[in-house]
Design brief:
Number of helices: 2
Largest sheet: 5 strands, mixed, barrel
Shape: globular
Strand content: 35-45%
Strand order of the largest sheet: 4-5-6-8-7
Helix content: under 10%
Distance between the termini: 35 Å
Number of strands: 8
Order of helices and strands: HHEEEEEEEE
Number of domains: 1
Radius of gyration: 16 Å
């Protein structure tokens, strides 16, 4: 998918969609055909929202193949209105991240795949409402 197409679809992409299990109530992202907790196929798609708060995070300083030029990687668990998303934080230094930090979804370039494809994916950035 070209960057131009992604830009046109950014509102749809940024409206993160997950699933909610009607049997056990578990919410999962990305969406799957069955609930990863109870294996029920009685799931429905839900919008997770495009903003949230950092619940937990870690900083990766050891190069992972394909991500050497993206160090350090800040990976966070973000609590949105309707679920949690494990994601990369972007546009923030590791020392600036904190539990409770408000973040919002954005589309950013990811690492080049082994076949040379450059994917654009949803990441999270510091919310414009943060004062820190």
């Amino acid at each position: 998918m070209s960057f131009q197409r992604i830009w046109r679809l950014k509102d749809i992409l940024l409206n993160l969609v997950g699933i909610k299990c009607s049997d056990c109530g578990y919410t999962s992202y990305p969406p799957k055909a069955a609930c990863p907790k109870c294996s029920s196929r009685n799931v429905s798609r839900i919008s997770l929202g495009s903003s949230g708060k950092v619940v937990s995070y870690t900083v990766i300083n050891v190069p992972i193949e394909g991500f050497e030029n993206m160090l350090p990687l800040v990976i966070a668990l973000v609590e949105t209105d309707n679920g949690r998303v494990l994601t990369q934080l972007t546009n923030v230094k590791p020392e600036e991240v904190y539990i409770g930090m408000e973040v919002e979804a954005t589309v950013r370039r990811s690492a080049t795949t082994l076949d040379g494809y450059v994917p654009y994916i949803v990441k999270f950035k510091r919310s414009s409402t943060n004062n820190a």
